[in-house]
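Lab notebook, bench 4. The sequencing result for the construct came back, and we need a structural model before the next group meeting so we can plan mutations. Quick request posted to the team channel:

Model the 3D structure of this chain.
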Amino acid sequence: MTLPGIGPKTAERLAIHIASRPKLKIDEFIKSINDIKELKICQLCNNFSETNPCSICNDGQRDKSIICVIADTSDLEVIESTKKFNGLYFILGGLIDPLSGLTPDKLFIKELVNRIQKNDIKELILAFDANIQGEATINYLKNILKNSPIKISRLARGIPMGSDLEYTDEITLSSALENRKRVD
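Done. Here's the predicted structure in C-alpha coordinate form:
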Protein backbone atom coordinates (compact mmCIF):
# COMPACT_ATOMS: atom_id res chain seq x y z
CA MET A 1 0.00 0.00 0.00
CA THR A 2 1.16 3.55 -0.66
CA LEU A 3 0.10 6.80 0.94
CA PRO A 4 -0.60 9.96 -1.07
CA GLY A 5 2.24 12.46 -1.02
CA ILE A 6 4.74 9.94 0.40
CA GLY A 7 7.59 9.30 -2.01
CA PRO A 8 10.37 6.71 -1.69
CA LYS A 9 12.70 8.96 0.34
CA THR A 10 10.01 9.98 2.84
CA ALA A 11 8.84 6.37 3.11
CA GLU A 12 12.40 5.29 3.89
CA ARG A 13 12.78 8.00 6.58
CA LEU A 14 9.46 6.97 8.16
CA ALA A 15 10.42 3.28 8.12
CA ILE A 16 13.79 4.02 9.76
CA HIS A 17 12.09 6.21 12.37
CA ILE A 18 9.54 3.52 13.22
CA ALA A 19 12.17 0.76 13.28
CA SER A 20 14.33 2.76 15.70
CA ARG A 21 11.51 3.09 18.27
CA PRO A 22 11.23 0.78 21.29
CA LYS A 23 9.16 -2.37 20.66
CA LEU A 24 6.36 -1.08 22.94
CA LYS A 25 6.00 2.10 20.84
CA ILE A 26 5.97 0.05 17.62
CA ASP A 27 3.24 -2.19 19.08
CA GLU A 28 1.18 0.90 20.04
CA PHE A 29 1.61 2.25 16.51
CA ILE A 30 0.51 -1.07 14.96
CA LYS A 31 -2.52 -1.19 17.29
CA SER A 32 -3.56 2.34 16.28
CA ILE A 33 -3.40 1.35 12.61
CA ASN A 34 -5.41 -1.81 13.33
CA ASP A 35 -8.01 0.29 15.14
CA ILE A 36 -8.72 2.08 11.86
CA LYS A 37 -10.36 -1.13 10.61
CA GLU A 38 -12.93 -0.78 13.40
CA LEU A 39 -14.17 2.62 12.19
CA LYS A 40 -17.72 2.76 10.90
CA ILE A 41 -19.27 4.96 8.22
CA CYS A 42 -22.07 7.20 9.50
CA GLN A 43 -25.33 6.26 7.77
CA LEU A 44 -26.42 9.91 7.72
CA CYS A 45 -23.35 11.86 6.60
CA ASN A 46 -20.75 9.27 5.43
CA ASN A 47 -18.19 10.42 8.02
CA PHE A 48 -15.78 7.95 9.60
CA SER A 49 -16.79 7.32 13.18
CA GLU A 50 -16.61 4.95 16.09
CA THR A 51 -20.42 5.11 16.32
CA ASN A 52 -23.25 5.07 13.80
CA PRO A 53 -24.66 7.72 13.53
CA CYS A 54 -21.52 9.75 14.22
CA SER A 55 -21.13 12.14 17.16
CA ILE A 56 -21.81 15.18 14.95
CA CYS A 57 -25.10 13.79 13.61
CA ASN A 58 -26.08 12.76 17.16
CA ASP A 59 -25.26 16.17 18.68
CA GLY A 60 -28.54 17.72 19.87
CA GLN A 61 -26.95 21.20 19.98
CA ARG A 62 -26.41 21.31 16.21
CA ASP A 63 -28.78 22.99 13.76
CA LYS A 64 -30.30 20.04 11.91
CA SER A 65 -31.88 22.30 9.28
CA ILE A 66 -28.52 23.21 7.67
CA ILE A 67 -26.30 20.73 5.87
CA CYS A 68 -22.79 21.55 4.70
CA VAL A 69 -22.09 19.36 1.67
CA ILE A 70 -18.40 18.53 1.28
CA ALA A 71 -16.33 16.29 -0.96
CA ASP A 72 -14.57 14.19 1.68
CA THR A 73 -13.80 13.71 5.37
CA SER A 74 -10.71 15.91 5.39
CA ASP A 75 -12.92 18.88 4.44
CA LEU A 76 -15.12 18.21 7.49
CA GLU A 77 -12.13 18.43 9.81
CA VAL A 78 -11.04 21.71 8.27
CA ILE A 79 -14.49 23.30 8.61
CA GLU A 80 -14.90 21.99 12.17
CA SER A 81 -11.57 23.60 13.12
CA THR A 82 -13.04 27.06 12.40
CA LYS A 83 -15.72 26.59 15.10
CA LYS A 84 -17.98 28.75 12.87
CA PHE A 85 -20.38 26.07 11.63
CA ASN A 86 -22.98 24.45 13.88
CA GLY A 87 -25.03 22.47 11.38
CA LEU A 88 -24.68 18.97 10.01
CA TYR A 89 -22.57 17.57 7.17
CA PHE A 90 -22.92 15.37 4.15
CA ILE A 91 -19.84 13.87 2.48
CA LEU A 92 -20.35 13.29 -1.26
CA GLY A 93 -17.34 11.03 -1.70
CA GLY A 94 -15.58 13.32 -4.18
CA LEU A 95 -16.34 15.90 -6.84
CA ILE A 96 -17.61 15.41 -10.37
CA ASP A 97 -14.58 14.82 -12.58
CA PRO A 98 -15.46 12.93 -15.77
CA LEU A 99 -11.83 12.90 -16.94
CA SER A 100 -10.94 10.85 -13.86
CA GLY A 101 -14.05 8.69 -14.17
CA LEU A 102 -15.85 10.37 -11.25
CA THR A 103 -19.37 10.86 -12.60
CA PRO A 104 -22.45 11.84 -10.55
CA ASP A 105 -23.60 8.22 -10.27
CA LYS A 106 -20.37 7.34 -8.43
CA LEU A 107 -20.97 9.97 -5.73
CA PHE A 108 -23.54 9.92 -2.90
CA ILE A 109 -25.84 12.37 -4.66
CA LYS A 110 -28.95 10.14 -4.50
CA GLU A 111 -28.38 9.71 -0.77
CA LEU A 112 -28.10 13.49 -0.35
CA VAL A 113 -31.38 14.04 -2.20
CA ASN A 114 -33.05 11.36 -0.05
CA ARG A 115 -31.77 13.03 3.11
CA ILE A 116 -33.12 16.39 1.97
CA GLN A 117 -36.52 14.89 1.15
CA LYS A 118 -36.84 12.99 4.45
CA ASN A 119 -35.73 15.82 6.76
CA ASP A 120 -36.70 19.44 7.33
CA ILE A 121 -33.64 20.91 5.61
CA LYS A 122 -33.77 24.66 5.06
CA GLU A 123 -30.28 25.28 3.65
CA LEU A 124 -27.50 23.44 1.87
CA ILE A 125 -24.04 24.97 1.97
CA LEU A 126 -21.95 23.67 -0.90
CA ALA A 127 -18.36 23.76 0.42
CA PHE A 128 -16.17 22.47 -2.39
CA ASP A 129 -12.69 23.18 -3.64
CA ALA A 130 -12.56 26.30 -5.81
CA ASN A 131 -11.70 24.52 -9.06
CA ILE A 132 -13.39 23.17 -12.18
CA GLN A 133 -14.53 19.99 -10.42
CA GLY A 134 -16.03 21.99 -7.55
CA GLU A 135 -17.86 24.26 -9.99
CA ALA A 136 -19.14 21.28 -11.98
CA THR A 137 -20.47 19.66 -8.79
CA ILE A 138 -22.15 22.89 -7.67
CA ASN A 139 -23.82 23.31 -11.06
CA TYR A 140 -24.98 19.69 -11.10
CA LEU A 141 -26.47 19.88 -7.59
CA LYS A 142 -28.04 23.26 -8.31
CA ASN A 143 -29.68 21.78 -11.41
CA ILE A 144 -31.11 18.66 -9.74
CA LEU A 145 -32.36 20.69 -6.75
CA LYS A 146 -33.76 23.64 -8.73
CA ASN A 147 -37.38 22.81 -7.81
CA SER A 148 -36.57 22.32 -4.15
CA PRO A 149 -37.68 25.04 -1.70
CA ILE A 150 -34.40 24.91 0.24
CA LYS A 151 -31.83 27.68 0.13
CA ILE A 152 -28.66 26.60 -1.65
CA SER A 153 -25.55 28.59 -0.84
CA ARG A 154 -21.86 28.21 -1.52
CA LEU A 155 -18.77 29.36 0.25
CA ALA A 156 -17.94 32.96 -0.50
CA ARG A 157 -15.06 33.66 -2.79
CA GLY A 158 -11.81 34.33 -1.12
CA ILE A 159 -10.56 30.81 -1.40
CA PRO A 160 -8.26 31.05 -4.41
CA MET A 161 -9.34 29.24 -7.58
CA GLY A 162 -7.42 26.00 -8.00
CA SER A 163 -6.67 25.56 -4.29
CA ASP A 164 -7.79 22.65 -2.13
CA LEU A 165 -10.19 23.28 0.73
CA GLU A 166 -8.10 20.98 2.90
CA TYR A 167 -5.11 23.38 2.75
CA THR A 168 -7.02 26.64 3.22
CA ASP A 169 -6.12 28.52 6.41
CA GLU A 170 -8.74 28.90 9.14
CA ILE A 171 -9.17 32.67 8.73
CA THR A 172 -9.90 32.43 5.00
CA LEU A 173 -12.23 29.48 5.53
CA SER A 174 -14.03 31.23 8.42
CA SER A 175 -14.60 34.27 6.24
CA ALA A 176 -15.82 32.10 3.37
CA LEU A 177 -18.35 30.35 5.64
CA GLU A 178 -19.62 33.61 7.15
CA ASN A 179 -19.96 35.30 3.74
CA ARG A 180 -21.43 32.42 1.77
CA LYS A 181 -23.70 33.33 -1.13
CA ARG A 182 -26.95 31.85 -2.36
CA VAL A 183 -26.64 29.76 -5.54
CA ASP A 184 -29.22 31.03 -8.02
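Residues 53-182 form a domain with the Dna Topoisomerase Vi A Subunit; Chain: A, domain 2 fold (CATH 3.40.1360.10).
Will bring this to the meeting.
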